[in-house]
């Protein structure tokens, strides 16, 4: 059996320590020493039993130099780590250990842990550097290397004594002591005596103990670097001012003590450890330890024990042990007691505040240093209240009489002292250098001017107050009432008496006032990917107080929001993300979870959500060891990310251009198909080669030839040379042929060349992207951004420590602390104001689906953020108000005199924001990633004016768009249409099943139709109303309109936009065949499908060749300007601008306009025409000035002619031509509107004609 051997010097050191403590001259045998040590306690009644003595002879009293051997000379070893049966590593006792204290060892612990080791060593044993309570494994080997015994041991007690191999004495961890809300964390603060030369192995001990910083408190230090290794940062903080061997803590030395404490705080807050010392590690070191422990709420008796431990340590050169009754120590304790508070902690906190530290710094230190949940300190509890009685005959130089400079109306301002808002102020007195705050029923507060921030209360303005009162009254009358009868929204409004001038609400109520925009970060990250529009939206959100993002379907709103969140959090700010329902915010949370960032979020709002959050708290952080990064590496990565982001701009433009080319192909295909039908009516087409001319040159040649033909003049020599120089010889030959052949030929050549140009441009851009490795670079930017984001999180969070657990009361009382820990709060818009404290302000508020948020709810949300990002789409589902809500709110509206932009019944949050903040940046997310191009192009043309860039591709799939029209009849019964259900079952679903779509959804406007379909299809498919389908998608969508004659409710453009854009690969529409449906939005959808499917359309006119005439119009304007045809140019432009103004209105958004359209490309059926009319119509030089057409099928809707007052007089040649043109258009069923240049009311006339024009 192993023996326990002691060196004589070590035994004497222990005995001397015991005799000094007892004040005796007794002698001890080794066997008696344990009993003698434990006998100390009754001999000193004023000294508490030291916690670590409770079960073993204490670590610091055992000879560190004792050698442990067995009878054959083998060494005793302890496991350094455990990685499996073959992963045992031996480490001598006394060497720094990496503990494995997990459940792996605790599950099979038996009574009397460490029993085996005790028996082997012949008594109780000591393991230095181990954290008390952590389970260790040990091995005892014989001289031959055979294992004599092994097992587990758990050091008991509280104090963790440290032993280094080199000359490091009196060293211990400050962790373990009971304090406010828990215990002091191990591994954060170490004290010792001045170290001498260290052994190389001591660097490993320091690293394993988490020691990263070394602070030397001596004024005569000789060290140049830390003996604990090159990885430990060394710095001097000399405490040179003494009286009676104590550090002078009075006013003259506040600055040096505050600097030292801030340095320690910073180390602890970042999860690192610091070791500090003076010479003996007793008085200066003891003073700092006294303050650090007291600030954490360690009791006076335990602080006393820590001081006395220096005298007991066998590792100490401290000389005569100091007791808590010594004059030095008593002087220190009495100094702090003089601050007049009831506890040691509060006295030291009060001193620290006077020394220049802030309450936020103290709270941050306490949060990081305490393993538990300490209550936050409140600055107002430590303000000294003075009652001054002026005795003029007894004034001294220590008293300063400060005259009251002014009284500030507390209703006018919001008072924040040391970061905390103070409410209930009755009087605010300004004494120049100080403010005094008087509150009835509470003690007065006084603060230095530098500690106070006064912000204007925007509700003191009469107009602001009136508008706020309007929303408050509306909320009380309209908003939802909970089951307990409480109107939550109204209750939150009632609590608001003040709104800070820097809140978003202040800017909303007074948009004319200038606002301070946030500073954009130097490096913007995109850990969730990006495109060009999203990049712009993120940049604008981070550099604007108010920014608005319009997000059409499938354009990556959530991705944009996530990138904004990442940058806000990385900047150390807080953000609330809200929407009208939980689905949108759940989506944000899920995406963050995929990046292991869900620990940043708190899903709150309702009481149930709060309870669920509190219950789910784990008290631990994710493992961020792989996320950590050195500052130099992070700075380098930031530079690389910024450079890569700028570099990608050009490539993102190229990517978007390729998508636009694909859209042009998609538009070109049907248009060229229908043009071929028209061109087939011509024979003897010219054969002159125009191969080397661009499409723009061909259009210019068309314009040139048309002008030549209209004037019927011969070309002079110079004109011929000009044409040959600008075009080619083939172009010159065309001027010898008739316009009836040349102009259609040039139009045909335009399509051929245009397609060739688009193909070439697309190939070149694809080569450019491939050479650049675009996809790899995009992934590189994403990954580098994610690394930067995670590195910031690893630095900010002390992830090695336990995470604070919050209680229900913390949401209101400790809002700032909560959002520091959980900077991303998710909620509904309705609940966000009441989620945390009523005065809490988030740095950012992101409102998703803002078109569905009513104004009363939105205005309340505006009050709780400094900056806002409003995300939504006015083209999708709006906020729905009942008729009762509208009547009630309008009655309230009539009582006030407010701008129409604030009207509850006519505006959502999004529409009001667009009207109020007209200078705010508005970003349209243009890139669409969800639907097949043919599907989303309907929405693009119908609702978004062609602004979307479709990133999906058309692979000539069959049946992308299909239309099923039931025969006319009264098939609908109320809100149910069985005939349409039959079509779905018998025709649509069998076809879709053959295509093997993974998911099929059926959308209908009415719940009755939903119920009937679900019943008949046995819930085999996703069936729901349009409103329930927003935010979802399916591979194939079946849209059933139900109504025989489509009603305004079913025909709502927002509903149709949402319904169509749910389809990823296939859209089938089932509707009723009634002529009255032609003038509806569903009628437009029908026309769009028929046009793109090349279905035979019975019409007397051709569809308008939109692409052709767009290019022609540009060339025409350029020609008229160049040739100084000012009158013609100005009158045409003037009318064109009037037409565009009309078409910009929502009601006419599906109407397009072509300029100077030839009747030859319009008239398809010449049978009704006379011979003379036919000849006139066939002439390509015969035009209508403007032709309005339906964008969905390019069918003409209205022709507009602009008649000059003299040129079109009765009896003139032009008047005769007008009569022919009138007749031709009438026979072709194309309405004609003639407008005189000296007339008026053009806009109204155009609108009236469009309202009555028949739909083909």
Please name the defining characteristics of this protein.
1256 residues, 42 helices, 41% helix, single chain, 15% strand, seven-stranded parallel β-sheet, disordered N terminus, elongated, six-stranded mixed β-sheet, 44 strands, alpha/beta
Explain the overall architecture.
- There is one protein chain.
- The chain is α/β, with parallel strands linked by helices and 1256 residues long.
- The strands form twelve sheets. It has a seven-stranded parallel β-sheet, with helices on both faces.
- Mean pLDDT is 80; it is low at 1-11, 30-126, 241-246, 313-319 and 385-398.
What is the helical fraction, as a range of percent?
A: 40-55%
Task: Extract low-pLDDT stretches.
Answer: 1-11, 30-126, 241-246, 313-319, 385-398
Radius of gyration: 42 Å
Biggest sheet: strand arrangement: 27-28-26-29-30-25-31
From the N-terminal CA to the C-terminal CA, the straight-line distance is 107 Å
Beta strand count = 44
Q: Note the beta-strand portion.
A: 15-25%
Taking the sheet with the most strands, its summary is: 7 strands, parallel
The chain-level structural class is alpha/beta
Overall, the morphology is: elongated
Overall average pLDDT: 80
Please tally the helical runs, counting DSSP H or I stretches of 4 or more residues.
42
Structure, briefly:
With 1256 residues, this protein is of the alpha/beta class.
Layout of helices and strands, plus pairs?
Blueprint (H helix, E strand, L loop, with lengths): L2 E2 L3 H15 L7 H9 L1 H4 L24 E2 L6 E4 L10 E3 L10 H4 L8 H7 L14 E6 L5 E7 L6 E2 L10 E2 L4 E2 L2 E3 L4 E4 L8 H8 L2 E6 L16 E4 L5 E2 L2 E2 L6 H16 L3 E5 L6 H12 L4 H13 L14 H11 L6 H11 L4 H11 E3 L33 E3 L4 E5 L2 E3 L4 E4 L3 E5 L6 E4 L3 E5 L5 H17 L9 H8 L8 H6 L22 H12 L2 E5 L6 H14 L4 E5 L2 H13 L6 E3 L3 H10 L14 H49 L15 H17 L5 H10 L2 H6 L4 H34 L1 H23 L13 H4 L1 H7 L2 E5 L3 H4 L6 E6 L7 H8 L2 E8 L10 H11 L15 H8 L5 E3 L2 E2 L4 H11 L5 E2 L10 E6 L5 E2 L2 E2 H17 L5 E5 L2 H11 L4 E4 H4 L4 E7 L12 H8 L2 E10 L8 H12 L13 H17 L3 H18 L7 E8 ...
Parallel strand pairs: 11-16, 12-13, 12-16, 25-30, 25-31, 26-28, 26-29, 27-28, 29-30, 32-33, 34-40, 37-38, 37-39, 39-40, 43-44
Antiparallel strand pairs: 1-2, 3-4, 3-5, 5-6, 7-8, 8-11, 9-10, 10-17, 14-15, 18-21, 19-20, 19-24, 21-22, 22-23, 35-36, 41-42, 42-43
